[in-house]
Design goal:
By secondary structure, the chain is mainly β. It is built from 3 helices and 11 strands. It is globular. The chain starts with 8 loop residues before the first strand and ends in a 17-residue tail after the last strand.
């Protein structure tokens, strides 16, 4: 009876955890949307060598030595497919006043976004708040946004202060 799962249980790694009742989904969404997210442009290259840019938010540093970051990519995204194939990606940090760049990337208008190249050849924002060049170490496939663990192999300075997602008036989470 103890191993029997009920609708209000969480099942993780074969263990059943009792949560104490049904969760209010509106409250959950509101609380999770309070997590502070950055605003980033992820640069990869397609199989035929074309630049591919993605607006993203779910990035965090996970280690100092070696310097590791984790980024969550939507499972069906072309960016994740590019990362899995090439084992690399770059992350540019959007700065204040760059909402138009975020919108161009979301619209797929990559040719209108001013970029430079990292030493490894990946596209990064020319006028961002900084960037990191990352090489895939491990993947965690669970969920609708698999996590890519990557080592930071290079970094570049930028201008201004990085912005947070909520400063754009946007939300992604919950």
């Amino acid at each position: 009876m103890a191993d029997e799962a009920y609708p209000h249980d969480l099942i993780s790694h074969g263990a059943v955890w009792r949560t104490g009742g049904a969760m209010d989904k509106k409250v959950k969404k509101k609380v999770l949307q309070q997590i502070p997210y950055g605003a980033y442009i992820v640069g990869t290259q397609t199989e035929d060598g074309k630049d591919w840019l993605m607006f993203g938010t779910w990035l965090m540093q996970t280690s100092f030595k070696p310097t590791l970051v984790a980024f969550a990519f939507r499972k069906d995204s072309r960016t994740l497919a590019n990362v899995r194939r090439s084992k690399s990606f770059a992350v540019s940090f959007l700065r204040e006043g760059m909402q138009d760049v975020a919108e161009l990337v979301l619209d797929g208008a990559f040719e209108k976004v001013k970029t430079e190249r990292t030493a490894s050849g990946l596209p990064v924002l020319a006028d961002g708040a900084g960037w990191i060049d990352c090489h895939l170490v491990e993947q965690i496939p669970q969920g609708d946004h698999p996590i890519v663990l990557a080592e930071v192999s290079d970094a570049g300075p930028g201008k201004g202060k990085p912005i947070f997602l909520d400063s754009l008036g946007w939300h992604y989470g919950g």
